[in-house]
Design brief:
By secondary structure, this protein is mainly alpha-helical. It is built from eight helices and two strands. Strands 1-2 form a two-stranded antiparallel sheet. The relative contact order is 0.16.
């Protein structure tokens, strides 16, 4: 199992089954959250050894809010570049590919020469990521910062359906109540 960053783990979940050739609202939301996950990932790595009451930690925390606002307002070219970078990294690890969408099998799409591709995450890795996130959020005890961030981004990008609750018929109530 590869040690993935917060950005990579969220990308595996959020880009799965999204159209890779055209922008959609879901894809735009996912890319913004992937960008913010990268910012938070860097922040968590930089502040891992710092105490919360130190001046350096506080200054980095202040800079974090500015960086997150910038991440949420990506230009379309920066979003496309980020998408390509993340996809290339995950593809090189063998965790994500581009495949023909089921919609492109339609006779009208096929005869018109339209090729519709979508991202496909390795099914074992997708299950591993979603189940580990769900398990850590649902179990009692301490939760890692990365898990809290991933859970928030999953909610923000509207991918909560990927994570059923304990009895598999309910979603995670703890996450859905936060806004």
């Amino acid at each position: 199992m590869t040690n993935l960053s917060l950005q990579d783990r969220f990308s595996l979940i959020s880009l799965n089954a999204l159209n890779s050739t055209r922008n959609s609202t879901a894809k735009k939301a996912a890319i913004r959250c992937i960008s913010a996950a990268g910012v938070l990932d860097r922040f968590l790595q930089e502040t891992e050894e710092l105490t919360e009451d130190s001046d350096e930690y506080r200054s980095r925390l202040d800079a974090l809010s500015v960086s997150l606002k910038e991440a949420a307002h990506l230009s379309s070219s920066a979003a496309k570049e980020l998408e390509h970078t993340v996809y290339t990294r995950l593809n090189n690890l063998g965790l994500m590919t581009e495949a023909s969408s089921l919609v492109s099998c339609d006779l009208e799409f096929s005869s018109a020469g339209n090729k519709i591709l979508e991202y496909r995450t390795d099914s074992d890795e997708y299950s591993r990521q979603t189940e580990s996130l769900r398990a850590e959020l649902m179990e009692e005890g301490n939760v890692f910062d990365e898990t809290v961030c991933s859970g928030f981004y999953v909610k923000a990008a509207a991918f909560m359906i990927c994570f059923p609750g304990r009895n598999k018929n309910t979603s995670l109530p703890e996450l859905t109540s936060y806004t």
